[in-house]
Amino acid sequence: MNSRFCRWLIVSALVITASGAWSQRSAPPASDQTQEQTVPLSTLTAQCSFPPAFDQKSVAAFEQQAASGNAAAQCGLGLLYDNGIGVPQDYAKAIYWYRKAAEQGFALAQYNLGRLYRTAQGKGAPRDYPQAEAWYRKAAEQGLAAAQGALGDLYAQPPLFAELKGARQEYAQQNYAQAIPWYHKAAEQGVEAAQSMLAGLYLHGQSVPQDYAQAALWFRKAAEQGEALAQYNLGTLYADGDGVPQDNTQAAFWYRKAAEQGMAEAQYMLGYLYHKGQGVPQDDTQAAGWYRKAAEQGDAGAQMQLGSLYKDGQGVPQDYAEAYFWYDLAAVDKPHAFNTGQAAKIRDEIASHLTSADLSREQERARKWFEAHQARSQ
Fold first, then answer.
1. From the CA atom positions of the chain, what is the Rg in Å?
2. Distances 129 to 13, 117, 339 between C-alpha atoms, Å
């Protein structure tokens, strides 16, 4: 496949919080934008003690264990306050108990303490990047994979690293060099988000020689663990033949994995492969189905392709009104839009096939769709 059809999605810095699943970003590694990503709470509770129940008596007895110096209980009590489990959520108290355990060398508490200093500003705890770095490092040096990945994140985000060092421009290019060894350590322990980030650095040659084979290796490790972003990027490597033999069948395989998890970009690319008959049998009905899934999420390229299928009656009945609707959505100027000028031109050509009533109806339909989509995105 010609690479001009491929759109890279590289995971940004991997900031870890205490609940949910790892999320994903569509920014390149050098982006100044940040987004918290999460690991399961169970990952953050390993080795921490908890009371057998969460009534007042059991929590009070548990607090006595923590007050007596039991590091596992101190870490567990910090997690209770951190997440509001059995007690009111209180980040200041979480930091207090995490610190008690962290000062005894308890790696998980060190990591959680660093995490709160990184993320809890305005929630009863100060944001303090030097403190976050110091505690992440203590836990990372004990081999805690989550802390290794988090320390890499702190170095890999230019604004965070700049604030940490107090010199944004001076460190803008140096941060990745410090992030890479920590990402390697976390990736080698199987942290899929660190694997994906490391792959992105190799892909773009950020503080390492550009190496598509290494990018493919690490994207594959994360993809095999089910990370949609890595699946998409591995599909793109196969589509372009970068670091792996060019293979549209493999590209379709990995795009499908990500598409089935709801990734609009992968749905678009899978639709494109069906439309062109690359790696899968040519099938405009399948193409229309996958384009529609991406288009309904606001992907402008998919909206154009779906509009084209309706205009020409490929895989769907010919329907100029439906074609106008999708081209009208694609023509709206929005972030990451795909050739809005061309979409507007084709939309206006299609308008000649519609009555005034049809045109007004589809314009109103598109307006309402876009407003609803914006509301869902906020």
1. 25
2. 15, 7, 40
Provide the angle, in degrees to the nearest 10, between the axes of the packed helices 264-276 and 300-312.
Answer: 30
Question: Residue length, the chain?
Answer: 378
Which pLDDT score, from 0 to 100, does residue 35 have?
Answer: 37
How far CA 112 is from CA of 60, 361, 374, in Å, comes to 22, 54, 35
> Could you tell me if 184 and 13 are in contact, meaning their C-beta atoms sit under 8 angstroms apart?
no
Return the structure tokens found at 55.
Answer: 């009534």
Residue 51: alpha-carbon gap to chain centroid: 34
Residue at 378: amino acid letter: Q
DSSP reduced 3-state for 37: strand
Average pLDDT for the chain: 83
Residue with tokens 């972030």: 335
CA 134 centroid distance within chain: 26
Cβ contacts of 127-135, under 8 Å, gap ≥ 24: 129/154, 129/160, 129/163, 129/164, 130/164, 133/164, 135/102, 135/110, 135/111
Model pTM score: 0.78
What are the residue ranges spanned by the domains of the chain?
A: 304-378
**Half-sphere exposure of 233 toward its Cβ, with a 13 Å CA cutoff?**
39
Contact 6, 239 (CB under 8 A): yes
Tell me the three state secondary structure of residue 238: helix
Selection from 173, 140, 172 nearest residue 159 by Cα:
172
Greatest distance between any 2 Cα atoms in the chain: 80
**pLDDT tens digits, 320-348:** 999 999 999 999 866 555 577 899 999 99
Each residue of 117-138: pLDDT tens digit?
A: 988 766 767 788 889 999 999 9
Asked if the model's pLDDT at residue 89 lies above 60, the reply is yes
> Is 150:37 a contact under the CB 8 Å cutoff?
no
- The pLDDT of residue 367: 93
**To which residue do tokens 């314009």 refer?**
363
